[in-house]
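Lab intake sheet, docking and co-folding queue.

SAMPLE TYPE: protein with bound small molecule
LIGAND NAME: zinc ion
LIGAND FORMAT: SMILES
REQUESTED OUTPUT: full 3D complex as structure tokens
PRIORITY: normal
SUBMITTED BY: R.K., bench team

The fields below were copied directly from the construct record.
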Amino acid sequence: MGLNLWQTVKSLVMRNDAEAFDEVESDQDPVLELDDDVRTVITGAMEHAKGFSPKVIASWALGGVLALSVVTSAFAGGSPATPPNAPEPPSPAPVVQAAPESEEEPQASDVRVSVVVSEQWPMEDAEAASVVVEVTGTADDGEEVAQSVSVVPGSSRALILEPGAYSVAAKTSEVTLADMVFVASGQTLAVDGSGDDLSATVTFVLDEAKTQEIADAKAEAQRAAEEEAARQAEVERQAAEEAERQATEAEAARQARAAAAEAQRNEQTVYITDTGSKYHNAGCRHLKESKHAISLSEAQARGYEPCKHCH
Ligand SMILES: [Zn+2]
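RESULT FIELD (auto-filled):
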């Protein structure tokens, strides 16, 4: 469809006919619209290369059209030292893409990707030493772009991005460092093809609410631990108290048994005689003359002593 640039230029040069320009314009070729600059380049090439073959002139003219932005001023000055470098006549297919109306190819841009952090950011923390920033989007030529770069907080790294629309964001949008929560905000980035240097920033700020939640949770855990320790201490105190009480009870019981045994022994019935100073068990041979029953405690109270034969 349409006219091929090379063929058009060659045709114009070989015919060397001003009316040819009008013919081309009347064709309304969408690829090749012959504006005044193109016309100047071609006619300039024809003027300054008189005597060469039309093919050579056409080559020069085509080179001039393709390098229009450079060549126009030279020919407009009226005395170019040399024609632009004459390219080998290119094959038609690739030349079609170099339409004169696209004055410059879209340029990639250098993009500085910065990471900015709030003052609370723990710089000394090894985990906080760098942040991975992801750049994703679609270039104008349709290619999906996904790059990631590790950036030291407070500094920047350079990327080259083709024209397109991108998103610049932290790989991890929420990070917890030294019991503080930081959230990241990125940005969109349009690379417009001008080739100008650009910058993009990812910013981390302290999330005070979430950080407070961590502090509250730690305080609660601390309080619970202290409560548990106090409860444990109380259990141990009660156990010690119970052991003490049981020991006291056991001692009291022992003393009670001893006392009961003593009382039992004291209430034992013994026997005394009319004349002796000893007390006896029943059946003792010293009880043949006289025998009077008396309680042991009574006998002891009255100064009687145990008989050596029966006690
Ligand atoms: Zn006796």
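REVIEWER NOTE: Residues 280, 284, 286, 307, 309-310 surround zinc ion (CB under 6 Å).
SIGN-OFF: pending second check by T.M.
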